[in-house]
Amino acid sequence: MSADNLYFHKHRVPRDLKEKKNLHQSRVIWFTGLSGSGKSTIANATEKLLHDMGIHTYILDGDNVRMGLNKDLGFSPEDRTENIRRITEVSNLFADAGILVLTAFISPYLEDRESARKVIGEDFVEVFVDTPLDVCESRDPKGLYKKARSGEIKGFTGIDAPYEVPTNPELSIRTDQQGIDECAQIVVDYLKENNIIK
C-alpha cells in the first residue's frame, strides 16, 4: 500500500483531555551528552521527583531501547540517525498520550536533534548534560572508553566519532559541578517555572 493511501486517524480522546485528567502538561525532556555524562542517572532522579509529585512519566533510555525497538541498528552515522528518528516518533506518541517523557540518548549530531525538535515542536525540551570528556572518561561506568582507547570499539563518540555540542539548549547541567539531586531539581524547577507542572 502506498503512503499516499494513508490517512491520519483522529482520536475521540485528544491530548488536552488526557493532560487535564493527569493535571499536568506533557513534554519530551531530551537529555543529551557524552557517554558517562550522567544522562540516565539524572533522568532517573528527575523521574523519581516527578513521580513523587504525581506526574505521569516514562523514561526512554538509550541502551534499553537498543535492546528492543532498535536492536537492528548499529552505531554507524546512518544507524545513529535512524535510532534518533525512531525515538523522536515514539517520544511524540508519549507526549500525545499526555505523558511527560524523559529520553536519555547521546544523540551526538546537531542535525538529528534539530530534526527531533522540528517533529516534536514546542514540546521539545533539550537538556545538555555538559560534562567534560576527561570526567566522563574517568567515570567510564561501562568500561567503554577504555575499550575505545585500546581500539576494541571503533566510532566511539568523543574519541574517534564527534559529539556536536547543543547551540541553544533549554537547560545546561554540569554534573562535575553539581550533585545528581541538584541536577534533577534544576529540571523540575524549569518545568514548574514554565507551568508544565504545578
How much is the radius of gyration in Å?
A: 17 Å
Question: Major sheet: size, sense and barrel closure?
Answer: 5 strands, parallel
CATH class division: Alpha Beta
Helical content (DSSP H or I, runs of 4+): 40-55%
Distance between the termini: 45 Å
Per DSSP, what share of the residues sits in E-state strands of 2 or more residues? 5-15%
Instruction: Give the strand order of the largest sheet, numbering strands 1, 2, ... along the chain.
Output: 2-3-1-4-5
From the spread of the alpha carbons, the general shape counts as globular
Taken in chain order, the helices and strands follow as HEHEHHEHEHHEH
Mean pLDDT: 93
Q: How many domains make up the 3D coordinates?
A: 1
Question: CATH fold name, please?
Answer: Rossmann fold
Return residue spans where pLDDT drops below 50 for at least 5 consecutive residues.
none
CATH architecture field: 3-Layer(aba) Sandwich
Summarize the structure.
The chain has 198 residues and is of the alpha/beta class. Helices cover 43% and strands 12% of the residues.
Detail the topology: elements first, then pairings.
Blueprint: H1 15-22, E1 28-32, H2 39-52, E2 57-61, H3 62-66, H4 77-96, E3 100-104, H5 110-120, E4 124-129, H6 133-139, H7 144-150, E5 171-173, H8 180-193
